[in-house]
Specification:
Strand content: 5-15%
Number of strands: 12
Structural class: alpha+beta
CATH class: Mainly Alpha
Order of helices and strands: HHHEEHEHHHEHHHHHHHHEEEEHHEEEEH
Length: about 425
């Protein structure tokens, strides 16, 4: 028998395939949230819609992150120089449970270094300066994603991991294909699954070669650091295959979600001119603006976990072995947690933390770097281009779990005709 909650969740999954969903997912998410705190779809996925439940679920150690094995292990074989060893890609750090999660995260953190953001800040500022100069020297209209939001984190992530600049374009293409496969499997077409599998294999081959190269030649990047580090007294060392898969993971997550965070923050500010004016009047609000924009329109729309035992949430009991999806977009607009949740307010007082970077032991390792890039980028954009405005409708990536813009058409400055008209 189909319950009202099942009907509501099935209607949600039907709605997300419509083109109009990308333009406004929040009407649908709000309706689902107000229909109930927890829903089970006929596909077997449980949906958690309210902030309090989602926040508790994300940091609860009684749930597993191993959604890969829960669905099916589909890792590609690392080819090329690793073929004779028969390596298969293990799971990346985000899908591991203790004690393996702590071991791999410790080693990644060691390679990153405690002073990562301080070390990278001068380079971030330099890249931003180059991008602003390039925009000023170009046309008055452009695409903020291609002109600014994409090249900044792509450059920084590439340098952090030791990916040569000439390879960034093809590596980014593989990342885009894999991001599309991050949605629930039944929402991904057979063609996209095949494309994603091919991209994963090519990406793995590339990173296997890069990892071997960094082990031989050394360097200051993370891949070199992981490859040449002495064994940790407790965590030991990563295997070759672990270095490959986590290099891939760090690259995709290091740039992809930061692109979205920058562009979605700018879009939100342009849609709320009073908030844009407030930021220009007080640039010290940049950190608050990024945090509030992340709540208002999150780059991460859902995070999945798996129950390892019967689990009570939102007045219902989810049986063991079930996938539970926290709908971050719905939780961030929950009026039980946020006053006037459909409004951007960069001076919001006492706001609960956004859940986009996760929570608890699995809180995103790169969150501080993503925030730093977004804050510096947004400040530079709104202060360097005081006449910035939308120049067309945004174009969205067709993904559900990850929300991001393909294009954000903007006018950086008024044309000479407009300026003349304004002064007469």
């Amino acid at each position: 028998m189909r319950t009202a909650q099942t009907l509501a969740s099935d209607e949600y999954f039907a709605a997300v395939t419509a083109a109009s969903y990308q333009d406004d997912p929040y009407s649908c998410l709000s309706a689902l949230r107000e229909a109930g705190a927890v829903h089970r779809s006929s596909s077997g996925i449980w949906l958690v819609t309210r902030y309090e439940d989602a926040a508790r679920l994300l940091k609860d150690p009684r749930l597993s992150n191993d959604t890969v094995t829960a669905a099916e292990q589909t890792a590609a074989v690392v080819r090329g120089s690793a073929r004779s060893s028969g390596y298969r890609l293990p799971q990346p750090v985000t899908t591991l449970d203790p004690p393996e999660h702590k071991r791999v995260r410790t080693l990644l953190g060691q390679a990153m270094g405690a002073d990562l953001t301080a070390r990278l800040r001068p380079r971030i500022d330099a890249v931003i300066g180059e991008l602003v100069d390039r925009i000023r020297a170009g046309d008055s209209e452009g695409d903020l994603v291609a002109d600014f939001a994409l090249p900044l984190p792509l450059t920084i992530t590439g340098e952090l991991l030791g990916v040569p600049p000439e390879d960034l374009s093809k590596v980014r293409a593989w990342g885009e294909a894999l991001a599309r496969n991050g949605d629930p499997e039944f929402l991904v077409s057979a063609a996209d699954r095949a494309h994603g599998a091919a991209a994963e294999e090519e990406f793995a081959t590339y990173f296997a070669s890069l990892t071997l190269q960094r082990r031989r030649s050394g360097g200051t990047d993370m891949i070199a650091a992981l490859s040449t580090a002495k064994p940790h007294p407790v965590a030991g060392r990563m295997s070759f295959a672990e270095r490959v898969v986590n290099g891939m993971f760090l690259f995709i997550n290091g740039y992809h979600n930061t692109v979205s965070l920058i562009s979605l923050t700018v879009l939100a500010l342009l849609r709320f001119p009073d908030q844009l004016a407030a930021l220009r009047a007080d640039p010290g609000l940049a950190a608050a603006a990024v945090s509030e924009a992340m709540r208002y329109d999150s780059p991460i729309q859902s995070i999945a976990r798996v129950t390892v035992a019967d689990y009570a949430v939102g007045g219902r009991t989810v049986p063991a072995g079930q996938q539970v999806m926290s709908l971050i977009g719905a939780a961030h607009r929950d009026p039980r947690a946020f006053a006037s949740p459909d409004r951007l307010d960069i001076k919001r007082k006492g706001a609960l933390p956004a859940l986009s970077f996760g929570s608890g032991a699995h809180y995103c390792m790169g969150a501080a770097l993503a925030r730093l890039q977004a804050q510096a980028a947004v400040s530079a954009i709104v202060l360097s281009f005081p006449e910035l405005e939308l120049a067309g409708e945004p174009e969205w990536h067709p993904t559900i779990a990850l929300r991001g813009l393909r294009r954000l058409p903007v006018q950086y400055r008024q044309s000479s005709a407009s300026t003349a008209g304004a002064t007469t």
